[in-house]
Amino acid sequence: MTTPTIVKYEEALTRYEPVLGIETHIELGTNSKMFCGCPTTFGAEPNTQVCPVCLGLPGSLPVTNHAAIEGIIKIGLAFNCEIVEWCRFARKNYFYPDMPKNYQISQYDEPLCVDGHLDIEVEGETYRVEIERVHMEEDTGKSLHVGGATGRIHGADFSLVDYNRAGIPLVEIVTKPITATGDKAPLVARAYATELRELVRSIGVSDVRMEEGSMRCDVNVSLMPRGASEWGTRTETKNVNSLRSVERAVRSEIERQAAVLDAGRRVIQETRHFHEDTGVTTSGRSKEEAQDYRYFPEPDLVPMAPSREWVEELRATLPELPAARRKRVQREWSLSDLELRDVVNAGALDLIEATIAAGADAASARKWWMNELSRRATEQGVELTALPITPDQVARIQAMVVAGELNDKLARKVFEGVLAGEGTPDEVVAARGLKVVSDDGALAAIIDQVIADNAAVADKVRGGKVAAAGALVGAVMKASRGQADAGRARELILEKLGAS
Amino acid sequence: MTLIKKSAAELGALIASGEASAVEVAQAHLERVRAVDGQVHAFLHVDDEAVLAQARRVDERRAGGEELGPLAGVPIAHKDVFTTTDMPTTAGSKILEGWRPPYDATVTARLRKAGLVILGKTNMDEFAMGSSTENSAYGVTRNPWDLSRVPGGSSGGSSAAVAAYQAPLSTGTDTGGSIRQPAAVTGIVGTKPTYGGSSRYGIIAFASSLDTPGPFARNVLDAALLHEAFSGHDVMDSTSIDRAVPPVVEAARRADVNGLRVGVVKEFAGEGYQAGVLNRFNETVELLESLGAKVVEVGCPSFAYALPAYYLIAPSEASSNLARFDAMRYGLRVADDGTRSAEEIMALTRAQGFGPEVKRRIMLGTYALSSGYYDAYYGKAQQVRTLIARDFDNAFEQVDVLVSPTTPTTAFPIGERADDPMAMYLADLCTIPSNLTGNAAISVPCGLADEDGLPVGLQIMAPVLGDDRVYRVGAAVEKALEDRWGGPLLAKAPELAEAAK
């Protein structure tokens, strides 16, 4: 008899309560590495950004990058953590070819930032995610396994190691167990990762690009029977490379673990790998045969003792954080919850705010970015920020609309021209001759022709059916290729037909 | 007197005045190396042409009007644990055979800048683990006083080279006594500076919280000159102290103990101490008193636990520090026939590349750091460290310096303790406490033991950054004893037979 490998999600949630824990690694965007002066540029030729220190050559010694400590303290403060007065680095010992020293300089029982929290919103409800710790460590090199089907070390013909990444400052943010989320667990996980990314990005210490690995999530999931008080055995899913994958990985683990428990078996404590293509996790290394990292205080570095004054100085440099900003923007722009969420999800907040700063009113700025420009971004399959138009240019176009020089239809043509690389809004207007025609002389000729071509409609208007004039205005707009001032055209038509 | 018997200060002066060139001085020492190193085996690497080229450069710099330090043109031998860009650096291990570092240790670089001429690299216990230099992968070094005996260790090549007049100066590292103990048993001067007073950058690590580079010389002033030349803050070493180097040269010149309070460590005597060693030590204490020092006995009860604490801390750090020797990026790689995994090659290379004492300490340290044992071993040893620091603090409230024999015995015969690690470890009994707390200490010759006619060392210890005190007392003792002996102790060493030139 075979047992099902998964239980449908909704069904699983009727019997089990998930408990989550999320560990997030953030590569800081410092110019140099954590313990040496090597540059940190992403995508450089392999093994060109290395030196005796980050290669772990005999006799080399680490020296702490002050900018990285500044970065982690800012993160700690943004997560409402306590910044401890004294702590140390520790060595985490294990052998692996991508670790130049075969130990990683990290922090163990003395993290720099402790006891924080992050509030997130899921479907209108606020959850508080408690933060256990935020600590500093160095990244490892990157292994490339050549040959074999999976790109994993198993079955590979040989492996190459790129040490450019070795020693890049890495901040690890660890949550306390996240409980009582019920069927929202996957959404909570995703919302947490999303909010974390926004928060870290807002303070400017990392570009937090999951696709480039500058933000990486490990998702811990366990299930306990509903009503139970003791947590189940957890698994740790690695290789979760997008926000969507965070949600899917939690969901998939809940389904898998429910099936295991339903069958009366026990969940194995292990590392699992998430596969984007299939949406499921597979077993990695078993934690039960895991290594002993033999942590001990790093004797090559002196303890960190950030002064209270320094911490307060750094706190003062923090910008408005995303949650506060969203509240302010919602109020100032008079947005509904739904509208706000759309703006945030589209990544349009910065763009709209900059457009307003450049002179546009909030409603128009939002309208252009969320409608016209979002549509074009979707068509081209790019992020809104990647469109070749600046908030200043959007504001300029809107200013021409307000001045009556453009109508909405013409404005869209200006957008088209700017996005096609034809120049600034003013250049596009000039080159394409996009001006609202409100000159009576020019309009009169078009109107005469339209009345002649639509004699039946003109008669109706003459007969008092003023509403029929709309069709004539439409024809004028068409004949003028959208450039006519529709209001003026209507006035002139009614005048000519004696209906005014 | 031939050039090789001159002190470093004298050689520096001769070169500065133009009475001798750096090339002549280098030549004389290269000849001596050729003549006696076949018996002593102090050196692992000497390249005559490269040495002469360095000496020529110093002569050119001087001719070009460059202001050079007091040791410019003076030859120096480096323990093979200091990285050198122009010579191999092996740490006495097969696992690094032929490795050429792409960078200089800070000590190496500073001495190059000061114009010292690197004669070569000296033999050592593998990764500085040992007290006899018998643990080198490249053969034993012999004590110039008695070629059947060890020159101490782990810096035995450096002590032997200076004692055999192959070099007027050398460097060593002292993790548990590896400078002071070899200096004592070869009848020369060796200093362990304050931890953090001299940079560790570019020194292949044994135990990071204990390793300290320091000088060997045939007299106290020379040691002070060398100490001053390479010490001082280094941004490349986070544990380096950002303070001025204590005035060690001035102290060595001052050489008086009048009114100084000297404490005799009560615990360093009795069982296990050679009678002849204690005799010379006690006489030297009396001498200090006759020179005007105020001598008292001081109890340091926690020193009894220093040795076991050291043998948990040092191996723990070593087990981690030596993990990088894994055949992946540099050094030895064995069994890479295209069929084995990286993990297998790591294991096979380490099995073949490390000697038994290194393996023993990696095992000890790995065990001591293991989860479930950490508190009982590494954690407890760190607490002992605190107690020892408290003993030193108490002592230095009563006295300016502490004194003891440097080693319980004189140089032992080669092979005698090779199979008995505990007996070997006892050679560092008196030197280890200063490593655990980081304070300054020196060993100066204080006579020959009655039983075997071999050198005995006096250890002088001072608080952290009190390096000048050990030189001041050391120089005073040296002056008084040389007056008594009618010359340096080393003059009593038997002449080494010079091989045919």
From TrEMBL, chain A:
Keywords: ATP-binding, Ligase, Nucleotide-binding, Protein biosynthesis, Transferase. PROSITE patterns: GATB. SMART domains: GatB_Yqey. GO terms for biological process: glutaminyl-tRNAGln biosynthesis via transamidation; translation. The keyword Cell membrane does not apply. Its EC number is 6.3.5.-. One of its GO terms (molecular function) is ATP binding. The keyword Repeat does not apply. Residues 350-497 form the Asn/Gln amidotransferase domain. It holds the Pfam family GatB_N. It comes from the Bacteria. It is an enzyme of class 6 (ligase). It catalyses: L-aspartyl-tRNA(Asn) + L-glutamine + ATP + H2O = L-asparaginyl-tRNA(Asn) + L-glutamate + ADP + phosphate + 2 H(+); L-glutamyl-tRNA(Gln) + L-glutamine + ATP + H2O = L-glutaminyl-tRNA(Gln) + L-glutamate + ADP + phosphate + H(+). Allows the formation of correctly charged Asn-tRNA(Asn) or Gln-tRNA(Gln) through the transamidation of misacylated Asp-tRNA(Asn) or Glu-tRNA(Gln) in organisms which lack either or both of asparaginyl-tRNA or glutaminyl-tRNA synthetases. The reaction takes place in the presence of glutamine and ATP through an activated phospho-Asp-tRNA(Asn) or phospho-Glu-tRNA(Gln). Heterotrimer of A, B and C subunits. Belongs to the GatB/GatE family. GatB subfamily. This is Aspartyl/glutamyl-tRNA(Asn/Gln) amidotransferase subunit B. The gene is gatB.
